[in-house]
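The data are set out underneath:

___
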Amino acid sequence: REHGLATHGREVVLHLDSRHLGATIHIPSCASWEFPEFGVGQGAWNQHQGFRGTIGDLLEKCRSDVERNRGMYGEEAAPKFDAVLKHIDQMLQCGSGESEVPAVSLILRDPSGLCGVSADLLGCIAKDMKFERSLAEKMMLIPLGAPAPGEQLTTVEQIAELVRQAKFVVALTGAGISVESGITPFRNPSAGDKGSIWGTFNAAEMTVQNFNTDPKVTKAWWDMKRSLTCELRNAAPNPAHKFFSVLEQQGKLGAVVTQNIDSLHMKAGVSSQKVIELHGHMRGLICSDHKTPLNPQTFRSGDCTFSIPEENDDAIAAVYADDKVPLCPDCGCPLRTETVMFGQSMPLRAVDVACQAVDEADLLLVIGSTLIVQPANELPCIALRNGAPLVIINFDATQYDGYAKGLIRHKVGKFLGAVTEKLLDMPESLLPTATLRKPPKDMEKSQDPASLTQMRVAKEGSRCGKDMLVNTKACNMQFFCTAVSEPQGDFGLLEQSLVAMNAECPEIGKMIFSDGPDQLAVVASIPDVLASVLNCKDWLQEVSRAIGGNITQSTSTSGMLVVHASAESYPIKLKEPGITAAIRVLKDKGLFPVEDEEDDDWVFGDEDFPLC
């Protein structure tokens, strides 16, 4: 527990209303989530890419998903979709001052146990329980490429050679990298936080909520910052910081993602464009009522704009020289640094940029971090899943130690200083010839635009095929109609999408619609085993009667329909009536389920359409 390794899965139920739209939540990609009142959610294990943002953002995503799926079930189901959209809109538009605030539940089931609920939502938790992971869940949570016992790299020479081979190095640094520069760490888990910031000051009290409401906490917070500022003023970068400056000069450095607020990476010569500060910095000061990405929960209304920029050394020094809480000269609210406090949402853009950098890395170095704090403690898993080697340099254990290609238990400054010397001594002829990153073939990425488009088409087609398989089995159906967006009306891409779907559910008859700026493209495919049940040409002809267009390459088991755009014909508007016409054919032949009178939520119900 001390190092962030959840021993159990976690299931949480939150009761939410529009007052909570600005609160943040983090849902890992391995978790399932659902708004039961809407019948909207996503399954676990790669059914989604994970979510990090506000409750309002999550509801906007739900609205977008419902709108996209609305056309899949024809106009007869439209009122049910519209009712869901109306409920979501009420939630999004209703202000906190309304007398009746629409409420919804959010159910999270997370096998990793790492789902994050911000302090703003703690009062909304209706259920919070642990559960034992199944064997399958345990297997799914294991990162790829764990080294065999005894194979981990531990020497200066080994790490230097690994770095030499790398082309895009990303680092995640914590307080441990700056200890040798004289900076007191915030935590010291191995010694019960003795000799750390939180061993001296009460971390539990220092939330942004208490800072904004309790003068005693505001004063204590400033006492803590002043004690830290004295160290920062006298600190100089150590060889570990300078190591990344050398990597940047060699063209190897992708990014330094840091949890530190001491700015020592930039003092060591790393360009600011390469440094991603997850927890902010102490270079300047702002009014606590000045709303910024690093101060989202303001002291009052957020209308003040006062700040002391980092260039104004004299004004900043005067603030820290005093022993009182400094107040804004414009509005009288306390000043503060642009650093992340407890209970405060993370700067989402910085988090996204950090995730993107790690996603592109062919080597990830984790230095001086116990990987306790989210979301930094999930970044190593991104690298491991991509096949990028992980090197951890840390005295304290982490949950990723067993998966690290390199595991170092030495002082980071001395160790990386020696690695730097080895790198500089290597001849230029020893340049990397191949990437360290060895992902599975289906995870390889191409920068060619056409290849990227084909990859997105295949991914969307595969996902739709999986959804079809589950939904048709749940409803005892043999045929399915849906729309896809990635092909954008291109028949070549639409056929690729169909191939990806058929790979997932080859025994299902399908009619697929895709609209583009110039035309609506429709392809139909019926497996041979169903050829006697429905004729593909007849199916397309009924759709053509409803929306027009020309049928081409039509047989009893396959065919195409194209409707060209004109002044009277808009592809995007013809897609929904086309799907409705296709479903009508299925209903007339008894091939489409009718509404269950005992189940009012047949479109979204878990028993009928589990993935909608």
Notes: The mean pLDDT is 82. The radius of gyration is 28 Å. DSSP finds 17 helices and 22 strands in the chain. The CA atoms of residues 186 and 197 lie 4 Å apart.
